[in-house]
Amino acid sequence: MPSPSPSPSPFPTPSPPRRRARHAARPDTPTAPSVPPAPQAAPAAGRSLRAELRGAHLGTEITASFVVFLVALPLCIGIAVASGAPAELGIVSGIVGGLVVGLMRGSTLQVSGPAAGLAALVAQAVTEHGLAMLGIIVLVTGLLQIALALIRLGRMFQAISVAVVQGMLAGIGLPLMIGQAYVVADAKAPGTPVENLLGLPGLVAATFGDSDALVAAALGTVTVVLGFVWKKVPHPAGRAPAALVAVVLGMGVAALPGVDINTLQVGDLLGSVHLPGSAELAGLADPAVLTTIVTFTVIASAESLFTAAAVDRMHTGPRTRYNTELFSQGVGNTVCGVLGALPVTAVVARSSSNVQAGARTRLSRTLHGLWLLAFALLLPGLLALVPITVLAGVLVHSGWKLFAPEQFRLLWRQDRGEAVVMGVTTLAIFGTALLEGVLIGLAAATLLAVLRMSRTTLRQTTDGHTATLAITGSATFVRLPQLLEALEALGALVEAGAPRIRIDLRALTHLDHACRTQIDEFVAQQRTSGTVRVEVLPPNTTGAAPVAGFDAYTREGDGFAWFADTRR
């Protein structure tokens, strides 16, 4: 008995594409012979420092370096104190950011140093693993950054959702503000960001009950206010950095008789350097240390490269070469790790000051490291006069700029889905930890992208004796419940007496295997009944590029291709 021929599939193989003519038609008018383009000059970001200085104004570069130095000095000290490290280690990192990273290529005008965005992370590492382990953590972080740059993954960080990055910065800034509020009042923060937040009412009550704490809080509050209003002061006084003005003012108040507020405890700059030894190397076997290293690498690299993108928008000079910049940051962190100092990243405050001061070359950022070194060697005693509350006020202002609440409002008006991702990332970091919060934010961004890429519209209509289901958009497994519900409704119309079914896929842009299987099974089921006429209208594939998700099945030989079938 001959085997029955298989029933024709509703989706036979489409006709092969027409071959392109071997010789294209010649134009009516002759064309000039093609000439290979002349090689373009290398971007300025990749030139030597001597080449950059040609045509640059040396006086402007030196002036800009002093401006960056005045901005960087209080930030280096304050970030070190907030990180639970000696103040001199912050200066060491600032020197490395200037003299090492500043000399290297990548981003011409970007300035590196210890960053407020890493203060909480460094403080956590110092608390959990000790200050001695900080050097080896930063050292391996730098080596990982170099490795990422060598395999050219610098631009990978640009693929991260901007909402996640903004949420990460906000999640760093919010705990920084709350934690430094205790330092402003010469008090000690309870612990986690949530505990610090819940303890604020008690902090306020304790501050008003202690005259010395009240003086410290007033001085710190003035520092925060100066950070917001000093830029409105007319020149020439307004040219001075607000943080430096606050430090000078605080030193004057601390010197007044009867004022008892905490000031910096400064040690020897060279004595603060701690070279990693065998004990620290053995600590790399601890999984918690390895997790901290990965967190440092991701956050420091992302902050540096996103800062580079922000600085590129501030000027019309050479653009950043991201892999080269990541390599430079890795070298800087490797040196910081060898010295036992804080990690360095690119910093917006210093970089924007560099651009606004008129810098055009790497000389300005390199010289600012030289000025930091000279100050630490020649005038270390001045640091002991700086009130800690002033440095905390500087960091509260930095935390507010990281938190940037106006970004939430702006993003909510532009894209509420992205605003939700930003909020989820911020709250996750605040409630858990930096790495866990970023991972949660990335998961939220991925879910949002999947939902948006799988937007599907299913419209069901009845015209005479024909029940039509039109599917538009991208049909993926995420929308499978909607598709099944629509097919069930279509089947109910058949049971009610509709003799003809039309499934219109002409506006479909993508169909994954899950949805395609359900449509195939539905069509086969209806045809098996023998009482209904099924018509499938294929997607529009007349363009140069085929619609995603349709040709693969035909090539696999499963007989599942799209066409219009009018047979019973």
Any overview of this molecule?
With 568 residues, the protein is of the alpha/beta class. It folds into two domains: 57-399, no CATH class; 455-555, STAS domain (Transcription Regulator spoIIAA). It contains 22 helices and seven strands. The strands form two sheets. Strands 3, 4, 5, 6 and 7 form a five-stranded mixed β-sheet that branches. A two-stranded antiparallel ribbon has the order 1-2. Helix 20 (480-495) packs parallel to helix 21. It is found in: Membrane. This is SulP family inorganic anion transporter. Residues 1-16 have a biased composition (Pro residues). Keywords: Membrane, Transmembrane, Transmembrane helix.
What are the key terms here?
568 residues; alpha/beta; Transcription Regulator spoIIAA; 2 domains; five-stranded mixed beta sheet; two-stranded antiparallel ribbon; 56% helix; elongated; disordered N terminus; SLC26A/SulP_dom; membrane
Helix percent reads 55-70%
- How many domains, in number, for the residues? 2
Determine the mean pLDDT: 83
Rg over CA atoms, rounded to whole Å, is 32 Å
Query: What is the number of helices?
Result: 22
Topology overview:
Blueprint (H helix, E strand, L loop, with lengths): L48 H5 L4 H25 L4 H15 L10 E2 L5 H11 L1 H20 L11 H23 L8 H6 L1 H9 L2 H19 L12 H13 L23 H5 L4 H26 L9 H18 L5 E2 L1 H9 L6 H16 L9 H16 L1 H10 L1 H16 L2 H20 L2 E8 L2 E10 L4 H16 L4 E5 L3 E4 L1 H17 L3 E5 L13 H5 L13
Parallel strand pairs: 4-5, 4-6, 5-7
Antiparallel strand pairs: 1-2, 3-4
Helix pairs in contact: 2-3, 2-10, 2-14, 2-15, 2-16, 3-13, 3-15, 4-5, 5-12, 5-13, 6-16, 6-18, 6-19, 9-10, 9-16, 10-16, 12-13, 17-18, 18-19, 20-21
